[in-house]
Design goal:
Mean pLDDT: 93
Number of helices: 4
Low-confidence stretches: none
Strand order of the largest sheet: 1-2-6-5-4-3
Number of strands: 6
Oligomer: single chain
Strand content: 25-35%
Largest sheet: 6 strands, antiparallel
Length: 137
């Protein structure tokens, strides 16, 4: 996926999540984060599935490509009830979203971030800043 395609995908996600999600930055995972009430979970999930074409759960992620399994591991694994959404993971650049229901049964967190394969650390840092600015302007 080209940088242009990645940007367009992110812009669609931002537009489609408008009014549903409020984004903030999560330094721990280098991702945008939103927490929302379960009453809107179907709407949020529909948006994510409409843009991010692959959904992984606790079982299917074990058969995912190695780089998707690494993302899962970095996020602490996909536990029962959690999901990992990705755009086409066979692309050099793609987007993932971790879906984490809270133990209280009332709140869900989503963390969304790009994955840039085959770029150096400084270029990755620059692209992450671009992504952060895109969502938090």
């Amino acid at each position: 996926m080209s940088s242009f395609d990645l940007e367009m995908m992110c812009r669609v996600l931002m537009k489609d999540c408008e009014g549903l999600l409020i984004w903030k930055w999560d330094d721990r995972f280098g991702a945008v984060l939103s927490e929302f009430d379960v009453t809107v979970k179907d709407n949020v999930r529909a948006v994510l599935e409409g843009v991010l074409s692959v959904t992984w759960d606790r079982l299917s992620v074990t058969r995912a490509p190695a780089h998707v399994r690494r993302i899962s591991d970095l996020m602490g694994g996909v536990l029962p009830g959690q999901l990992l959404f990705t755009s086409d993971p066979n692309q050099e650049n793609f987007v993932f979203c971790a879906w984490w229901p809270w133990g209280n049964g009332k709140t869900i967190s989503v963390r969304l971030a790009p994955v840039f394969q085959r770029i150096d650390h400084s270029e990755r840092a620059e692209k992450i800043e671009w992504f952060k600015d895109l969502f938090l302007k």
